[in-house]
Amino acid sequence: MANLEDVPSLDLMTELLRRMKCSSKPDKRLILIGPPGSGKGTQSPIIKDEYCLCHLATGDMLRAAVAAKTPLGVKAKEAMDKGELVSDDLVVGIIDEAMKKPSCQKGFILDGFPRTVVQAQKLDEMLEKQGAKVDKVLNFAINDAILEERITGRWIHPSSGRTYHTKYAPPKVPGIDDVTGEPLIQRKDDTAAVLKSRLESFHRQTEPVIDYYSKKGMVADLHAEKPPKEVTAEVQTVLSS
């Protein structure tokens, strides 16, 4: 834990003001569902900041739990070392742990989970024990053909995470980061072949999750093919209602 005396005053004031602003925000527990490239990664930081939520990306949380050697992290590592999938109960347990952090006080954004109906049911059971429930499921609905154009044009500056797109947000010099002048890379996942198999598993496994939450009246369909600013406006409309 950092000694507060060593934290610059400006940083302390900024954080204090942020917390005061957050205290008046309504609690929100949100799930973002959408195929790869549908814009979840663009919208989640905006939603996180606007509503003072914590962003729970299950892949990152699993890696953090394994690195911290928490009891659940140790169990997860055992499964991963054997080449097995980490069980749904373990993942839900890790989410449960993460929710107890002060940064999750106002609620959370879950991204990458639940991917199956069974996972959704287990998540609901865990929240029910806490006297909580999911408030909204944001469904980033988009046509597969649009996704292919979006994803295969994506380029990344590895050290900063800055992203570019050959059509929508090209760098000033093709293949070069605007800030550092270093070369951009394309992720192994960002090819048409990989996208096709990821979309197939999304349609097979995760679309039933949307139906599951639709029956509970929790789903808001977003027009994820629109430009990011328009999607942000849609999200704000949905979450203010």
TrEMBL record:
Domain named Adenylate kinase active site lid: residues: 154-189
Entries under Pfam families matching the protein: ADK, ADK_lid
GO molecular function: AMP kinase activity; ATP binding
Enzyme Commission designation: 2.7.4.3
Catalytic activity: AMP + ATP = 2 ADP
Keyword Nucleotide-binding: yes
EC main group: transferase
Tree of life domain: Eukaryota
Keywords, alphabetical: Kinase, Nucleotide-binding, Transferase
Cellular component, GO annotation: cytoplasm; mitochondrion
InterPro entries linked: Adenyl_kin_sub, Adenylat/UMP-CMP_kin, Adenylat_kinase_CS, Adenylate_kinase_lid-dom, P-loop_NTPase
Entry similarity comment: Belongs to the adenylate kinase family.
NCBIfam families with a match to the protein in the record: adk (TIGR01351), PRK00279.1-2 (NF001380), PRK00279.1-3 (NF001381)
Subunit and partners: Monomer.
Function: Catalyzes the reversible transfer of the terminal phosphate group between ATP and AMP. Plays an important role in cellular energy homeostasis and in adenine nucleotide metabolism.
Protein name per its UniProtKB record: adenylate kinase
